[in-house]
Design goal:
339 residues, Isopropylmalate Dehydrogenase, 2 domains, 11 helices, binds 1,4-dihydronicotinamide adenine dinucleotide
Length: 339
Amino acid sequence: MVAHQITLIPGDGIGPEVADAAARAVDATGVAVEWERVDAGERALLLHGALIPDDVFASLEITRVGLKGPTATPIGGGHASINVALRKKLGLYVNFRPVRMLPGLKTRYDDLPLDLAIFRENTEDLYAGLEHEVVPGVVESLKIITRTASVRIARAAFEYGRREGRKKVVAIHKANIMKLSDGLFIECCREVSAEFAEIAYTEMIVDNACMQLVMRPETFDVLVLPNLYGDIISDLAAGLVGGLGIVPGANIGSGHAIFEAVHGTAPDIAGKGLANPTALMQSAVLMLAHIGEREASARLHNAIYKVYATSDHLTKDVGGTASTNEFTDAVIRRLNPAY
Ligand code: NAI
């Protein structure tokens, strides 16, 4: 059996704890993986003098697939965000975030069968990082929206909708104010929607979308958004299904893919064994499907769901008392079909 080579970037804060948990769960599926561990983030800056040392790109050039824990980007100063740099350099233009209710989990919305698919454009918008000081006391940040990137993300959302039999796609924007930039974004979504007659297409202004998501989240299906709104709405949506400890993500381009949770480094709980590894494990479920290991992907998905359904061994953020390792061990036990 030839092992899959996968780049593992543990990251900062709770990153190493959840990355270790997710890698352990993947190994326990029986899929042969050769992990290439590389450092990025604050840890890499300390150890190697760079936030993204060259070996990160060198490894991803070979493996083409990464599993990544969150990384800290110093606020302000001269450091560009690691995630933004990775996504731009590797052309990871789709950020896909499935937001689903887990069985048995108590949340404010647990009576609703929430199943949202968020498609966030991943390479431009205000995240282009084009900021400068015009004169002291005045700064300018450029919002870049291109036809190419907007069509690409819209197509990814609609193609997913078709593949998965989804009914609706909503494009979220602020084109009433940003008439040219968000105007171009929705124009592209509208054009792409015409090729997918079986999927209902609507548009919603981002502030209204926030309210609708809180009041009627079950009316949402597939969401397509420019980068900044996608970032914010992803956290809001995570809050609907139990928080940031739950929601996975995939950054996908034409040559590479990096799987990572929506959450950050959670410095408040780092190093305490309290982190919920579900989000990165669920990212690993997406990763296994991406590398063609569909059976193992389904088995890991089911094992996670079984642990939630029985409500035992859950971590503190979702109302339990288990540590990161205890939750991970419970998932691994349930990978055995006889369990
Ligand atoms: P955060 O997501 O790290 O934490 C927000 C809250 O959610 C905290 O109370 C935290 O304890 C909780 N939380 C997050 N993940 C959790 C988990 N797996 N289990 C249990 N509780 C969890 O957001 P924050 O505090 O705004 O950002 C901290 C750092 O993370 C910043 O340096 C930021 O730049 C970075 N960050 C990195 C990301 C990435 O690498 N993908 C994404 C978002 C933020």
